[in-house]
Write a structure and sequence with these properties.
Blueprint lengths: L1 H11 L1 H23 L12 H34 L3 H8 L13 H25 L6 E9 L9 E6 L7 H12 L5 E4 L9 H9 L8 E3 L7 H10 L3 E2 L3 E6 L2 E5 L10 H4 L8 E5 L5 H4 L7 E4 L31 E4 L5 E4 L17 E9 L1
Parallel strand pairs: 1-12, 2-3, 3-4, 4-5, 7-8, 8-9, 9-11
Antiparallel strand pairs: 2-12, 6-7, 10-11
């Protein structure tokens, strides 16, 4: 049953289901506030004493019943307001007095509406971000300085993108075109393509159109069937790194390892052919490799995998505390960090959408390093 519910949510879409819930609960809050503003009066004037006694007895009974019903409505009103219905509640109490003379303007209701409004606005801001900026790729320019970077390669530009997943061919084509216009010397791929219906074939075809000086290299990710992926890469002129490395230029060695969830990454094997004094750049889809293997020979490690937390709270990756993606919490959520032996590690949020799970304050990106000696 639980799996059915999860599959239904993923099929329909988290944002879409939340928007339906959001509209419903705010509509309910609005109409409940209107209803609560019109409590009927049970006072009736009678001319005779007997009639007055009878009326008073009936009124007392009616008032008790009415008060009980209103206590139920009051609890429902407060619950709906605090369950993301603050906008509807606020609209309800702001109606002109000629429409609604509220009995709910007591202090507790005013405080509840203010709290409910804040609770409603926070997810609304996240949803708006997920539907706008989080669906557009940004290009992050970083200057990276290292004392052993070859002086003759000062200004060398390395682009890195990872976690392509189900990115559309049109989007990938636009990224390839943009990178071609940014004078890229080397393009690196961090793995995780979509193998469903051979979607990765189109993705690789578009990536291969990127104009670079020294080619395109990549590693596998945990979602990849490496044999098929590597074969397709070679078909498109992209060089796979399979616990192996290559000298890109004199003094610059590029290495790449297996994905640690699927195979057996070996940093030592990948960097074995580097010369003393080389600047060594290591590609690993999963950044956790940096905590379980020696990286003393590595000057910069680049990874993806964590998606920046995917769904975050104003950018804070709460999901990563679950330990299902990384064993190191938010250490490798995004940006610069370091390995267990202090090598520099950079983790990208990735570029592609992960099926129907939205990115919330985890904007897709391509990272471009401009390398400097210093």
């Amino acid at each position: 049953m639980l799996r059915f519910i999860v599959n239904f949510i993923l099929r329909v879409g988290i944002i879409e289901l939340f928007l339906v819930f959001f509209v419903f609960v705010n509509g309910a809050a609005f109409f409940i506030y209107i209803f609560c503003s019109r409590k009927p009066s049970h006072t009736t004037a009678h001319s005779s004493a007997a009639s007055e006694n009878t009326a008073n007895e009936n009124a007392t009974t009616n008032d008790n019943d009415t008060n009980y019903r209103w206590r139920i409505w009051d609890k429902l009103l407060l619950l709906v307001t605090l369950a993301c219905g603050g906008i509807g509640a606020f609209a309800g109490i702001c109606l002109p007095k000629r429409i609604a003379k509220h009995r709910v303007m007591a202090r507790k209701y005013r405080i509840t509406v203010v709290i409910g409004l804040a609770i409603a606005i926070i997810p609304l801001v996240h949803i708006a971000h997920g539907l706008t900026l989080d669906r557009s790729v940004r290009y992050v320019e970083i200057e990276f300085t290292a004392p052993n970077w070859p002086a003759e390669l000062d200004g060398y530009r390395i682009a890195f993108m990872t976690d392509m997943h189900i990115i559309s061919d049109e989007s990938m084509r636009a990224v390839a075109s943009e990178l071609s216009n940014r004078n890229i010397d080397l393009l690196l791929l961090g793995g995780d393509f979509s193998t469903r219906d051979s979607h990765y074939q189109g993705t690789l075809r578009e990536i291969a159109q990127t104009v670079t000086t020294d080619g395109i290299f990549g590693v596998e990710g945990n979602h990849d069937f490496y044999a098929g992926l590597f074969y397709a890469k070679l078909q498109h002129g992209i060089t796979p790194l399979d616990n192996s490395g290559v000298h890109i230029r004199e003094g610059f060695f590029l290495a790449g390892v297996h994905d640690m969830w699927n195979r057996n990454p070996s940093v030592a094997e990948a960097t074995a052919e580097a010369d003393p004094g080389d600047f060594v750049l290591l590609l690993s889809h999963n950044p956790d490799v940096a905590m379980v293997q020696s990286t003393v020979e590595v000057d910069l490690m680049i990874s993806g995998h964590t998606h920046g937390g995917q769904i975050t709270f104003f950018g804070f990756p709460m999901y990563l505390f679950r330990g299902s993606i990384t064993d190191y919490g938010t250490r490798f959520a995004y940006g610069f960090s370091c390995s267990a032996d202090e090598a520099t590690v950079f983790v990208s949020r990735g570029i592609g959408p992960y099926y129907t799970i939205p990115r919330i304050f985890a904007r897709p990106e391509v990272v471009i390093f401009t390398m400097r000696r210093g």
